[in-house]
Design goal:
The chain has 667 residues and is α/β, with parallel strands linked by helices. Helix 8 (303-318) packs across helix 9, helix 18 packs across helix 19 (611-618) and helix 18 (577-602) runs parallel beside helix 20 (627-635). The protein is globular, with a radius of gyration of 29 Å. 32% of the residues lie in helices and 23% in strands. The protein contains 21 helices and 30 strands.
């Protein structure tokens, strides 16, 4: 069997497992102190990135005769022997994975056979990552991570000198059947190296994972790639919801569909919840799967690299094409090979694998379904089945919130990105503040609550229109301060009807200090607030009000962003007649999804809705803010029976229903 070359960033992870030091002496300075909780050693070494792929391949080989593994990358030649011993499974007589305060740790006499490591530049330092984990009753959480790598100026200098030649000692061209590229963008993979590998091993199959969306060397081998794996760290910034699947059958979301539609080579995209979507078989097949999610951060480390290694092994040894059983087995093996293969604490062990399930469907089917779902009334008409409305498709980005207008979807995704960045900032200086302007009854507060739930924020809701005097705002700030003191999670404050007046004056000025300085004043005393998320819901300040008080402008200047979701604003954003027509048609489509979802909430037993009912929702005029009319129409329906809603349930003079549409899934 032909050999495999693994080129990329070989990184050594150094794990510290800590618990809090509960001692009056150690904490007298006011800092939190930790001590090691490891049972055997203070620190544990493990391979990451390209090295992890090599470890997985070595683990899955039945013997070294299956194929020879060649590793190339940047590390110090003095570390080559220890890196080699980190590839095999831990052994009682091999201490390569232990990094306590003794030098020259002894290694065993049996390095993994059939593995050769060749550094690209023998004098380069080995890239290392120090990970500090805190052992708690709830498991192991990462405290911090410290990277040690080549300084950027050295990487640039290497590129300038065009050092991309292959190391000596590699096998002949006809001996290599696969090349694996694992690029962390730390300087090991250069266009020159890719060109040399491509030129020398012109018959090898290529498997790629990179932390860059579009590395400059990708075009050199784009037509030769058999699989490109896009990990969560690359895909998540454009997908703040962290999910690629939705609906009762785990079908791809609309955002997944648009992402896969743009891929040009066999591609798998991963999420942090171990969801997998992709296009394979020359783009003709769509694959969706969900593996067992990790319960702790420690079991998440290395899962994408493990999956890449398993898939390379499967395809290299079997030569088979994509099929359901192969991918399900690959997901199960990747779960076992992920994480740290060292018995540090019981919590650090990978979880027992649960057999995942995968679905492979025709890409044309996905395209046809999403095209139908995003046009006209969204009704799908599968062959041999009754027409259906997959209700979840109207809210596939943020489950629970209907958004089909492209500009509206972009706004919601942008809010999600801002929230994602805010909650991942350890010590934010300022609050995140968003003004939502939308049509009356369109669900602004509902959207805010869904965002709080999605990002695990503690929600607090207030309605200015229900307050009597400006002093009531002080109670609002007191409630926020109390919630922040009592909750570990961050707070999301929803202020509805921000346009309402108290004591015959706008309330904007009352929020200037909380937004700008994180403080508020009560009876001359200054009280502090922690940075939090403020979502103000309203219909936008009237121009007459703007002229009366500069405080409105001051308020808007202090906001992080203003999001206009109302129909006139969305239509005004369109630059052509075609775009304006699309906004109008998508707004009417949203009315259908909204009406269907309200029916599901009001009548949980209803499975079918008359076509005339959906047309009634569709024909409402978007400029009339129809959300409240739709809700009233459903709530006043009468004589709903046998799991069906007909037009006669809504209108006494409605025609007899001729066709019904089945509702599938919920938003």
């Amino acid at each position: 069997m032909k050999d495999i070359i693994i080129a990329g960033d070989w990184v050594v992870d150094e794990y510290w497992y800590l618990v809090r030091q509960h001692s009056e002496i150690s904490s007298h300075t006011g800092f939190v102190h930790y001590r090691s909780s490891s049972k055997r050693e203070d620190r544990i070494l493990d391979l990451c990135s390209a090295g992890h792929v090599a470890r997985v391949l070595n683990s899955l080989r039945s013997s070294s005769n299956d194929y020879h593994i060649w590793g190339i990358g940047d590390w110090n030649d003095g570390d080559t022997n220890q890196l080699l011993h980190l590839i095999h499974r831990p052994k009682p007589d091999c201490h390569a994975n232990q990094a306590n305060f003794l030098l020259n740790r002894p290694v065993c006499s049996e390095p993994p056979p059939g593995v050769t490591l060749l550094p690209l530049h023998k004098d380069r330092p080995t890239t290392r990552v120090v990970r500090l984990y805190h052992s708690t009753e709830d498991g192991i959480v990462q405290l911090s991570r410290i990277d040690w790598e080549q300084p950027p100026e050295e990487v640039k200098e290497k590129r300038r000198r065009n050092q991309g030649v292959l190391p000596t000692g590699l096998p002949a061209s006809d001996k290599v059947g696969a090349i694996v590229i694992h690029d962390l963008c730390k300087g090991a993979i250069t266009p020159q190296l890719i060109e040399q590998l491509n030129k020398h091993f012109h018959k090898a199959r290529w498997y790629v994972r990179t932390k860059s969306q579009a590395p400059e060397w990708l075009d050199v081998i784009r037509d030769r790639i058999d699989l490109r794996l896009i990990g969560p760290e690359v895909a998540e910034p454009d997908n703040p919801w962290g999910s690629w699947l939705s609906g009762s059958e785990n079908k791809i979301t609309y955002q997944s569909y648009t992402s896969l539609r743009a891929v040009q080579s066999p591609t798998l995209i991963l999420s942090e919840d171990r969801e997998v979507i992709g296009r394979v078989s020359r783009g003709k097949k769509c694959i969706t799967a969900k593996a067992q999610p990790p319960e702790e951060g420690i079991t998440q480390v290395g899962w994408p690299s493990a999956l890449l290694g398993v898939l390379v092994h499967k395809f290299h040894t079997t030569g088979s094409e994509w099929h359901k059983e192969l991918f399900e087995e690959a997901l199960a093996l990747a779960h076992i090979e992920a994480g740290v293969p060292v018995d540090i604490t019981p919590a650090a062990q990978p979880l027992l694998s649960v057999r995942p399930t995968a679905v492979i469907r025709e890409w044309d089917t996905q395209e046809r379904e999403w095209t139908s779902a995003m046009n006209q009334m969204g009704i799908l008409s599968p062959e041999g089945s009754e027409p259906c409305l997959e209700v979840w498709r109207g809210a596939s980005d943020l489950p629970g919130y209907v958004a089909c207008i492209q500009a509206k979807r972009k706004h919601i995704i942008d809010i999600g990105k801002r929230l994602r960045a805010f909650i991942r900032t350890n010590d934010p200086i300022r609050s995140l503040s968003i003004l939502l302007q939308a049509d009356p009854g369109s669900g602004k507060s509902h959207l805010a609550k869904l965002l709080a739930r999605k990002f695990k924020l503690s929600p607090l809701s207030f309605d200015i229109s229900q307050m009597l005097h400006r002093d009531d705002l002080l109670d609002l700030f007191d409630a926020v301060a109390t919630e922040q003191a009592n909750r570990e999670q961050r707070v999301l404050v929803i202020v509805d009807e921000i346009n309402a007046r108290l004591d015959n004056a706008p309330v904007y000025s009352s929020f200037l200090a909380p937004l700008e300085q994180n403080v508020y004043v009560r009876r001359g005393r200054v009280f502090s607030l922690k940075p939090c998320v403020w979502i103000f819901a309203g219909t936008g300040p009237e121009e007459s009000e703007r002229g009366k008080s500069m405080k409105i402008s001051d308020f808007e200047e202090r906001l992080t962003t203003t999001v206009k979701l109302d129909y006139p604003s969305l239509k005004a954003m369109a630059s052509t007649d075609a775009e304006r027509d699309d906004v109008r048609s998508k707004a009417k489509l949203e009315q259908v999804y909204l009406g269907a979802s309200i029916i599901q909430q009001r009548y949980p037993d209803v499975e079918q809705v008359g076509l005339f009912v959906l047309k009634e929702f569709f024909q409402l005029t978007p400029t009339s803010s129809p959300a409240r009319a739709i809700r009233k129409m459903v709530e006043e329906a009468h004589n709903v029976q046998r799991g069906k809603v007909t037009i006669q349930n809504i209108k006494d003079d409605g025609p007899a229903e001729q066709q019904f549409v089945r509702l599938i899934g919920k938003i």
